[in-house]
Specification:
about 300 residues, alpha/beta, eight-stranded mixed sheet, 11 helices, 13 strands, about 35% helix, globular
Length: about 300
């Protein structure tokens, strides 16, 4: 893997200078993670790791059709204080696909439980975005005492049936003739984002694998777009650890009304909106995202632990 130059202090200063300037050179100042594989319940999972083993553990969960490298710029900064791990969910990134498809929330949570137990990560901070946020909420409802804190990024507490995801799951995986074709056509889902072209290209390059004929295709299993609907409304009261619910101010995926519902149901939750950000909050405005998360975690270090 390529190692990007830049000291931790330079990285911190770059994020502290504000959103506009913080985007400049972010990709060049990322630190390459260590790459690992672990097999749990017969599924080979891949994860990335930054920071010292002696630091407190912080675990990152990406969204649907994404991968662990989405967190690279964020993890580099968090690794100054934490041992940071980012998992490729089953069927995503460099983790194995399952046959027949097994991509229900219970499957993802079981993987998370096994990884945390096998690597002895508890107590830990858990951060999840979108689908990863829903997985994190579900885990926290079951294991609040294992968490120092929970951060959920632009994710609600209901997963409904999605006709669009069903249609997308039936489409053939896209094929790119070469890297230039990939970079020209690659889009996030949803497409709206303030992320820089350099960051999007970094994510794109880690989103594909090479076919035998040299062409490129996306790594994630399109079957992972399908899952049964879930509703955590009756479980949010069980999340007794300090919880931060983050919403992108421009997000169409996570309405402000849903955030308000979650705050009313979750006993130790607080909510924040990240300005100039859509659904992909930490890509769109990494400076304010990190500032908000650091502030929350610093305060919780001084407060009481999770209640069992």
């Amino acid at each position: 893997m390529t190692t990007f130059s830049g000291s931790p202090r330079q990285i911190s200063d770059k994020f502290q200078t504000g959103r506009k300037s913080s985007h400049k050179g972010i990709v060049e100042h990322m630190t390459a993670p260590r790459s690992h594989f672990i097999t749990v319940s017969g599924v080979k999972l891949h994860y990335l790791e930054w920071g010292l083993h002696t630091n407190p553990s912080l675990f990152l969960l990406h969204g649907g059709s994404a991968h662990a490298h989405w967190w690279d710029q964020i993890a580099t900064e968090l690794a100054r204080e934490y041992r940071v791990l980012a998992l490729d969910l089953r069927g995503h990134g460099d983790s194995a696909w399952t046959t027949p498809p097994a991509y229900e929330i219970t499957d993802y949570v079981a993987d998370l439980e096994a990884v945390i137990t096998t690597l002895s990560l508890s107590p830990l901070v858990l951060i999840g975005h979108s689908l990863g946020g829903f997985i994190a909420l579900t885990y926290a409802a079951l294991h609040a005492a294992a968490l120092q804190a929970l951060v959920v990024v632009d994710s609600g507490f209901r997963l409904p049936h999605s006709r669009r995801m069903r249609l997308l799951s039936r489409l053939p995986a896209p094929v790119y003739q070469e890297e230039a074709d990939l970079l020209a056509r690659f889009r996030l889902l949803p497409e709206d984002t303030h992320a820089t072209p350099a960051l999007l290209q970094h994510i794109a390059r880690h989103s594909v694998r090479q076919l035998p004929d040299g062409r490129l295709t996306l790594k994630f299993d399109r079957a992972s777009l399908l899952r049964q609907p879930c509703d955590l409304s009756s479980r949010l009261r069980d999340i007794t650890c300090p919880t931060l619910l983050l919403r992108g101010s421009d997000s169409r995926t996570f309405p402000a009304t849903t955030l308000a519902e979650m705050l009313a149901l979750c006993p130790r939750a607080q909510g924040r909106e990240i300005s100039a950000a859509g659904h992909h909050v930490f890509l769109d405005n990494p400076a304010i995202f990190l500032q908000t998360v650091h502030s929350f975690l610093d305060k919780e270090k001084e407060g009481s632990p999770c209640k069992s």
